[in-house]
Amino acid sequence: MRFVLALVTFVVAAALIALGVAERTVLRPADHVTLSASAPKDVRYVVVPGSVLTAHPGVQRVHLAGGSTAFAAYGRTSDVTAWLSGQRYAVARVAADGTPLPAVVRTAPVVAGLTGGHPDPNGSDLWLDQARASRSLDWSVNVPDSVSLLVAADGTAPAPAAQVRWSMRVSTPWATPMIVTGSVLALLGLLLYIWALVHLRRRRGPRRKPPQRMPKPPAPPKYRPTRQPAVVASKGRRSVRNFSVLLAGGAASAVLLTGCQGAVAAAPAPTTTVDPASVVAPVAVTEEQGTRIVARAAAVEQRADASLSKSTLSERFGGAALDLRAAAYSIHKGDKKQALPQQIPTAFSMRLILPEATRAWPRTLFAVVSDPADAKAAPLALTLEQQTPRDPYRVEYAQELLKPAGSASDLPKLPSAVLGAARLKPDTQLLSVPPGQLAADYGLLLQQSDAPVGKAFDTAADPLLKAAGQAAKAAVKKGLGSTAKVAFSDGTTDPASVVALVTADSGALVSVQLQETWKVTPTKSDVKVKPSGATRILAGTGSTTKGISSTYGYQLLFSVPPAGSKERIELLGYAQGLISAKEL
Question: Which end of the chain has the smaller Cβ count within 10 Å, N or C?
Answer without folding.
Answer: N
